[in-house]
Amino acid sequence: MTRKERLGNVKRILVKVGSAVLTGDNGIDLNIVEQLVADIAALRERGLQVVFVSSGAIASGKHRMGIEGKLKNLPQKQAAAAIGQGRLMRVYSNAFGKHGLYVGQVLLTMSDITDRKRFLNIRNTILQLLEWGVIPIINENDTVAVDEIKFGDNDNLAAMVANIVEADLVVNLTSTNGLYDQNPNNSKKARLIPVVKEITEEIEKAAGEEGTEAGVGGMRSKVLAAKKVVAVGTPYIIAPGKRTGVLQEIMDGKEVGTLFLPSAEHLNSRKYWIAFTLRPRGRLVLDEGAVQAIVHDGKSLLPSGITRVEGDFVIGDAVSCVDVDGNLIARGLANYSAEEMKKIIGLKSSQIEQALGYKDYDEAIHRDNLAVTIHHAEKPKG
Ligand code: GLU
Predict the structure, then answer these.
(1) Top mutation candidate among 21, 142, 156, 222 for ligand 1, by most atoms within 8 Å of CB
(2) Could you tell me the distance, in angstroms and rounded to a whole number, from the CA of residue 57 to the centre of ligand 1?
């Protein structure tokens, strides 16, 4: 299938732009903003909906305060974001205004979306903005976010938002041309990878570790974000953000950047939320039979297949399920607390009542609340 065919049905695009594209030595680069906004406006002309995730608040605030080098601590970063976010919105509002488009600001923290009700609320708000033809501009609410409620970086935020709005395509505009097979800064032999069919260990390795000065993500966080996005069946493109008309080129089906193909079998939005949005509070180690049953046979997880319980979770918390080697197999919502789970591991479901004095469920995690995250050749049933 050609790129053009693959992207033929795309209606709603999430575009994410990083600080390294947007900001330079003089703070926000207004030329880049104009160029990018014109590109987004042209997507709108094509009848596409655009959700825009923009970084640059902290970098812009830092520049306004005349601070060189890195910001020292969290309060400095949060204060810089408070200054920069307002500036960022003003710049966007002016630039989109020239194309007759309005913008709406949406600032999120992780805790806003781990609550299912708030998650749905945010979704409704963003969809309303789209219905009004307004461009939602989304960023992390950096002034209030502390570690516990942080997305960490905007690559992750964009992946979460793509799930919230059910985007058909995610384009991550970066300061590089895409993903290379090795670090292009260190090797002349590095080659751009045009298409990634599956995010293997090798691909993750190619992404390396390092971030750029302006943003916090780096290539690694982009590939991890791509993994989350393709898991729900959405294609993901890492593309050069400074290239004029890059979004048009992408929608014309040109071979620009790196395209990550959606995984053949994918999670629905709620299972994605269980797998990637909720923070796991514990870990269940599964025996081989249980791994087989949940991955290949579409079964629930029974206490009999659990060999170890780690962490401190209560009923309804998200937990990770790993195999004996520690590989993540699935995430799900626990039917029993950690304390209870420890008492019933290895037992048959008929023995739960005797062990706990009550039994509300036969399963440790019901299939409906279980999101299988590993790639596997055979199709699951659930
Ligand atoms: N939210 C941060 C900002 O607007 C950017 C985080 C990132 O670089 O990923 O400055």
Answers:
(1) 142
(2) 6
**CA atoms of 194 and 163, how far apart (whole Å):** 24
Q: What does the domain layout of the chain look like in residue ranges?
A: 3-270, 280-372
Whole-number pLDDT of residue 382: 38
pLDDT the model gives residue 56: 94
pLDDT in tens, 148-189: 667 778 999 999 999 999 999 999 999 999 999 888 877 888
Q: Print the SS3 string covering 188-200.
A: CCCCECCEECCCC
CB of 29 shorter than 6 A to ligand 1: no
pLDDT in tens, 287-337: 999 999 999 888 999 999 999 999 999 999 999 999 999 999 999 999 999
| Helix orientation angle between 218-231 and 154-165, rounded to the nearest 10 degrees | 20
What three-state secondary structure class fits 173? strand
Residues 280-372: name the CATH superfamily.
PUA domain (2.30.130.10)
Q: What is the pLDDT of residue 260?
A: 96
- 57 close to ligand 1 (CB < 6 Angstrom): yes
Pocket test for ligand 1, best of 153, 155, 157, 224 (most atoms within 8 A of CB): 153
Question: What is the DSSP code string of 55-73?
Answer: --HHHHHHHHTT--S---S
DSSP H or E stretch at residue 32 = helix 30-45
Of 364, 198, 196, residue with least CA distance to 266: 198
- Ligand 1 binding pocket mutation candidate from 23, 58, 155 (most atoms within 8 A of CB): 58
Count other C-beta atoms under 10 Å from residue 207's C-beta.
Answer: 20
Query: Max alpha carbon distance in the chain (Å)?
Result: 70
Whether ligand 1 lies within 6 angstroms of the CB of 217 is answered as yes
| Common-topology check for domains 3-270 and 280-372 | no
CA 208 – ligand 1 centroid, Å? 20
**Predicted local confidence at residue 115, as pLDDT:** 84
The lowest-confidence range among 54-63, 89-98, 138-147, 212-221 is 212-221
Per CATH, the number for 3-270 is 3.40.1160.10
